[in-house]
Design goal:
- The chain is mainly α and 546 residues long.
- It has 2 domains: 1-15 and 302-496, Orthogonal Bundle (MetI-like fold); 32-298, MetI-like (MetI-like fold, Orthogonal Bundle), CATH 1.10.3720.
- It has 22 helices and 2 strands.
- The chain has helices spanning 2-21, 36-67, 73-79, 88-99, 104-113, 128-153, 156-164, 172-198, 201-205, 211-221, 225-249, 272-301, 311-344, 349-355, 363-389, 401-425, 429-437, 442-471, 474-479, 487-496, 500-529, 531-534; strands at 68-69, 268-269.
- The longest helix has 34 residues, at 311-344.
- It is globular, with a radius of gyration of 25 Å.
- It starts with a helix and ends in a 12-residue tail after the last helix.
């Protein structure tokens, strides 16, 4: 009963979105000049372009890391995850500054060539192509980590068979590894495309018109919730269509799993020259996607030490931590309830699946969907208090951090649920049955049998929700109470006002906190979950290398 109630409650935002779009909650759509065709075209171009470029970067990095032994390979294996700690809008403000007409790159070009502005062609960073590049530098780790795991599960005999069939070494990736890893890669690309469709910071800073910018313009700029809800439904339909297309494309594919005794793929020794080339190739995404942005932010932050004494930054950091910790805790609690419900009654998955759709829903859509039912509940509470006391109170829910916590929890609940459910599936139900036959209570089973196995999964799920909430911009920007800032909102606001140097301090704070969570996740995944794979040595030549 508890699980069904929570599931129905979490389906309420989507229902309220439909009701709001129909105008049944009051309000009328304003006659705004909105170019829907441009929103659809730009959103799809962004999603497809970012998915393709992220796929190329992630697959090549994962293949080099998995197959070859070269200098700094172990370091780069974890370092390739570092761009996850940098929000895309911070990357956009840095590279937008560098490649603008008044930026240092074009200044050097004009000084070196003697040409004036307009006398030469230079790619416009504030465009769809620039947005694709920036988003890909941040989102490729989604593809990389799934591709790395898929490649490492492949066994040596598959490549031996390919060699016997006359497949040369240079074609192993295209003709053997990629077809087998295709389901995992499709999931990674789908995640990238969903994050791209949900992005607000990059497209707003680069002046690209998409659904997310239109929703913000309709709600925050014009106060038109009906139009915002209709735009949100259109964006949700685009996202759901992308998800359906991804699942339809791999409907006839089956994941190949090697036998437990099969020899896993081992590292190939390469020449010193090629080894350093592979090292440079794998280092490039890390340098462009993490080292250069962090170095630029550090340089800006040291130009004036007084920026570190700005109390607004620390107030925003405190708010961000409260918001992220609360959302992570709530998501882990509800995720655990859902995971145990599915374990004991698998048919409950039909109720839970619609309730955990939030990650596929962009933050701007979540904000619109969550705001309306909370506003109705808030007004009902305020009316009841007014009847009792004669005074009209403030709005408790929408006027506090509660609405932001609820929106972020709803958006990232599936992340915590997925991690906890995966951890719970590693515990055989026969263990529970044996414990019950010995007279052990359910509470003791959870405490002494499940908790030692689940705490790592709960930690990873909570940290993922924590890191995502810290970086979340559109939902926080639309639902924040008056005069409340998070680090993400403060960074975006300063950047939008052109105060890039001042924005460096909250940006560094945000990156430092997110980086801590990413490092713990990387340690958990690389150090504990795959010890045999990460410590494999390339001391022997595989049979298919000779």
């Amino acid at each position: 009963m508890l699980t069904r109630g929570l599931a129905l409650l979490l389906c309420l935002p989507i229902v309220s979105l439909l009701v709001t779009a129909a105008g049944w909650m009051g309000g009328t759509a304003q006659p705004l000049a909105l170019d829907y065709a441009a929103y659809v075209a730009n959103s799809l171009l962004l999603a497809l372009g970012t998915g393709a470029l992220s796929l190329a970067i992630g697959v090549m990095a994962a293949w080099y890391i998995t197959l070859y032994d070269f200098p700094l390979r172990r370091v780069l294996e974890a370092a390739l995850l570092l761009p996850l700690a940098i929000p895309a809008y911070i990357m956009a403000l840095i590279y937008g500054h560098w490649f603008d007409a008044a930026g240092p790159i074009q200044d050097l070009l004009r000084d070196a060539s003697g040409l004036a502005y307009g006398d030469y062609w230079f790619p416009d960073i504030r465009s769809i192509a620039g947005s694709v590049l920036v988003l890909s530098l941040v989102l490729y780790p989604y593809v990389y980590i799934l591709a790395r795991l898929a490649f490492r599960r492949q066994c040596e005999s598959w490549f031996e068979a390919a060699q016997l069939c006359g497949v040369p070494t240079r074609q192993w990736l295209w003709r053997v590894a990629l077809p087998i890893a295709r389901p995992a890669l499709a999931i990674g690309v789908a995640l990238v495309m969903m994050e791209t469709l949900a992005d607000f910071g990059v497209v707003s800073l680069f002046g690209v018109s998409t659904f997310t910018t239109a929703i913000y313009k309709s709600w925050a700029g014009m106060g038109d919730l009906v139009t915002a809800a209709r735009l949100a439904i259109m964006l949700l339909l685009v996202v759901l269509f992308a998800l359906w297309l991804e699942r339809f494309s791999r409907r006839d594919w089956q994941q190949m799993q090697p036998a437990s005794q099969a020899r896993r793929i081992r590292l190939l020794n390469v020449s010193k020259k090629r080894g350093w080339f592979l090292c440079a190739a794998c280092s490039l995404p890390v340098v462009i996607g993490f080292v250069i942005p962090v170095g630029q932010l550090l340089f800006w932050s040291l130009l004036n030490s007084s920026y570190w004494n700005d109390g607004w930054n620390y107030h925003a950091a405190t708010t961000s931590l409260i918001l992220a910790v609360s959302a992570a805790f709530l998501a882990c609690v509800i995720g655990t309830i859902f995971a145990y419900a599915v374990r004991h009654r698998p048919q409950m998955a039909r109720w839970i699946r619609p309730a955990t759709i939030g990650y596929a829903v962009p933050g701007s859509v979540v904000a619109v969907a969550v705001f309306m039912p909370l506003l109705l509940l808030d007004r009902s509470i305020a009316t009841g208090i007014e009847h009792l006391t004669g005074e009209r109170p403030m709005l408790f829910l929408t006027g506090s951090l509660f609405a932001m916590v609820l929106a972020c929890m709803y958006r990232f609940l599936v992340v915590a649920f997925g991690a906890i459910d995966s951890g719970l599936r590693t515990i055989s139900p026969s263990v529970d049955d044996a414990a019950r036959l010995l007279g052990t209570s359910q509470g003791r089973i959870i405490r002494e049998l499940h908790w030692p196995h689940l705490r790592g999964s709960i930690m990873v799920g909570g940290l993922l929700v924590f890191a995502d909430t810290m970086k979340e911009l559109p939902a926080s920007l639309l639902m924040r109470p008056f005069d409340v800032n998070t680090l993400a909102i403060r960074t975006y606001s300063l950047a939008q006002d052109g105060l890039l140097v001042q924005a460096s301090v909250p940006s560094l704070m945000l990156i430092a906190i997110s980086l801590l969570a990413v490092c713990v996740i990387a340690w958990q995944q690389l150090g504990l979950r795959l010890p045999a794979l990460t410590r494999m040595q390339a001391t022997e030549q595989p049979a298919w290398q000779n």
